[in-house]
Write a structure and sequence with these properties.
405 residues, alpha+beta, Transposase Inhibitor Protein From Tn5, Chain A, domain 1, twelve-stranded mixed beta sheet, two-stranded antiparallel ribbon, 14 helices, 14 strands, 34% helix
Length: 405
C-alpha cells in the first residue's frame, strides 16, 4: 500500500498499476506489478474502513486552520473506452461537458474554509448494469448493491457521516441534487442545514403567501385536510419570482478572492415556501431562503439556491456558503491530473473503489502537508523523486510493446 500511494504521488503521466510498479521498483517490475495488482483488484480490504481512517488523520490537520464549514455532495465522470468496465455507460460526463462513455462516482467531501477532503466515494450503477446478471457477476458487483439514484446514494453517504460523528455542517450540492424534494427532506430529517442549487422552473410560494386548506364540504364525511390551489392562488417558478423583484432588492456581494481578481456578482434573497406537490400535504413546507444570482449585464438571473439557514442570516453569509462548493473542484482536478484517479485500467467493482480510495489517501497526505503552512503562505513544491525507469521497459498494451511483439 505504501508503494502504491508513493507511485501515485511520484511524477509521471500514467498512474495505472504497471507504470506505478516501474516507478517504485524499476529492478523488479513484473513481481511488483503482480503484488500491486493483487492489492487493488483482489485483496478483500474495506475501502470504507480505509477512508474512515484517512478522514480521522486528515480532519485534525484541516481543523488547525479553521472548523468544518460544509459537507459537499457532488459527482464526477471518468471517461472510459469500451463497455466492460463496471458501471460504464453513455451518460453525462462533467470532465468533457457532454454525454459520453464514462463511469460516474458520487462523493461526499468535508470542507473547511481553506481545505477539503472526500470522505465517501461510491460508483453510480446505471439501471442497465444493475439488472444485468452476467455483467454483475463478471465485475464482482456485491449482491446488496442495486440501482440507486445519485441523490439517494448521496443521502446514504450523509447519513453514514452523521453516524460516524463527523462535525456537522450545512450540506452543499448543485441543482441535480437540490431539485430533489426527498433529498432536501432527508437532510432536514438528519437535523442538518443545507444550501443547494435548484432549477429555474422549480415552484415556490412568494414571500408572505401560503397554500390554502381545502374548504369544508357541507354535509357528512371526513373534513378535507390537504392543501388546495385554485386559479387565483398558484405558486410561481423561482425565475418568475426573481424577475418580479424590484431593482433595489439586488445587492452586489464579493464572496472570495479569485486567481486574478475578487469574485463579485449581484444577489437577492427572500423567504419562500417550496411548493412541489404540496397538494398532497396537510401542512405547508416551512419557510426557507431562496437565494438568486443575477450578474451585471446579463439579461436574466443565472443561478438559484434554497437554504435552511436561519432567518437572521445575512445575505453575504448566504452567498459565501452557497459559493463554497467551488473548493471540491480543486480536489477533483488534483485527484485526476496529479494522482491518476481516472487511470485505473481494471474492470471490477472492488478495484475501482480500491484505486479511488488509495488516490484519496495520497491526496489526504498532501492536505496534511499543506496544513502545516498558513493558508496565506505559499508552501512551495513537494520534491518527490522517482527512481529511473529501465531504458527498455514498455508497459503492456502500449504501441511500442505491440510492435516489438
Amino acid at each position: 500500500m505504501k508503494a502504491y500511494c508513493a507511485g501515485l504521488l511520484l511524477p509521471g503521466e500514467r498512474k495505472s498499476v504497471e507504470p506505478i510498479a516501474a516507478r517504485v521498483a524499476p529492478d523488479n517490475v513484473r513481481r511488483t506489478h503482480q503484488s500491486l495488482h493483487h492489492l487493488v483488484a483482489d485483496s478483500p480490504w474495506s475501502d470504507e474502513a480505509v477512508l474512515e481512517n484517512v478522514r480521522e488523520h486528515v480532519l485534525g490537520a484541516m481543523n488547525r486552520n479553521g472548523p468544518v464549514a460544509a459537507w459537499i455532495v457532488d459527482d464526477t465522470g471518468l471517461p472510459k473506452k469500451g463497455t466492460h468496465s463496471v458501471g460504464v455507460a453513455r451518460q453525462y460526463c462533467g470532465q468533457v461537458g457532454k454525454q459520453d462513455n464514462c463511469q460516474v462516482a458520487v462523493s461526499l467531501s468535508v470542507a473547511t474554509h481553506h481545505a477539503s477532503l472526500p470522505v465517501a466515494w461510491r460508483l453510480y450503477l446505471p439501471e442497465s448494469w444493475a439488472s444485468d446478471r452476467e455483467r454483475r457477476k463478471a465485475t464482482g458487483i456485491p449482491e446488496e448493491i442495486g440501482f440507486q439514484t445519485k441523490p439517494s446514494i448521496a443521502l446514504a453517504q450523509i447519513r453514514q457521516a452523521v453516524e460516524q460523528g463527523i462535525p456537522p455542517a450545512p450540506v452543499l450540492a448543485d441543482s441535480a441534487y437540490g431539485n430533489e424534494t426527498r433529498f432536501r427532506e432527508g437532510i432536514s430529517e438528519l437535523e442538518l442545514q443545507y444550501a443547494v442549487g435548484v432549477h429555474e422552473n422549480m415552484t415556490v410560494w412568494p414571500p408572505g403567501e401560503v397554500p390554502q386548506p381545502k374548504k369544508r364540504r357541507k354535509g357528512r364525511g371526513r373534513p378535507a385536510i390537504r392543501l388546495h390551489r385554485d386559479a387565483e392562488h398558484q405558486p410561481v417558478s423561482v425565475k418568475q419570482l426573481a424577475l418580479s423583484l424590484p431593482a433595489h432588492v439586488w445587492k452586489t456581494v464579493t464572496w472570495r478572492e479569485g486567481t486574478r481578481k475578487k469574485l463579485t456578482s449581484r444577489f437577492a434573497a427572500v423567504r419562500v415556501r417550496p411548493a412541489h406537490r404540496d397538494q398532497k400535504r396537510s401542512d405547508p413546507y416551512p419557510e426557507e431562503w431562496l437565494l438568486m444570482e443575477w450578474p451585471s449585464g446579463e439579461a436574466e438571473p443565472a443561478k438559484y439556491w434554497l437554504s435552511t439557514l436561519s432567518a437572521q442570516t445575512r445575505l453575504t453569509a448566504l452567498v459565501r456558503l452557497a459559493k463554497h462548493r467551488w473548493i471540491i473542484e480543486r480536489d477533483y482536478e488534483e485527484l485526476k491530473q496529479e494522482l491518476g484517479l481516472g487511470h485505473y485500467e481494471g474492470r471490477g467493482w472492488r478495484g475501482f473503489h480500491h484505486h479511488a480510495t488509495l488516490c484519496i489517501a495520497a491526496y489526504g497526505f498532501l492536505v496534511i502537508e499543506r496544513s502545516c503552512f498558513s493558508p496565506s503562505a505559499h508552501p512551495g513544491r513537494l520534491e518527490l523523486r522517482a527512481a529511473k525507469i529501465p531504458p527498455h521497459f514498455q508497459p503492456r498494451g502500449s504501441p511500442d510493446a505491440r510492435r516489438t511483439a
